[in-house]
Amino acid sequence: MEAFSIFFWVLFLLVLSPIILGLLLLGLQKPVRIIHQASGIVKVGYVGYSWTYLVFGWFVPVVRGELGVGVLHLVITLVSFGLSQLIFPFLYNRQYMVRMLTQGWVLDDNDPNAGLARLKLNILN
Fold it and tell me: Domain locations in the chain?
């Protein structure tokens, strides 16, 4: 009975390790408003650990309008037998925000999370 409880807790911690590491290393996912300079369209980006990517995987880029990135992530997920699903939540929000900011979007200075986004994305302005 004792071996079962140790095995259970080790397995439990192993399953929760991506969430625990994400929380410790990157913090909670925070929404940040971004504005397209040319059109004035307002959109929400995120900084921090991508909880949505951990749960929904490659569907997240597809829902956010990045079909090519979603297909690429699907292929990587299939090739890695799903192991990439444990790595991409650490990377996806940062990659998404960098893509948006290089395509004419800017951080909304009125957003309270804009300073945090500048810090996490290493923006010097």
Answer: 2-120
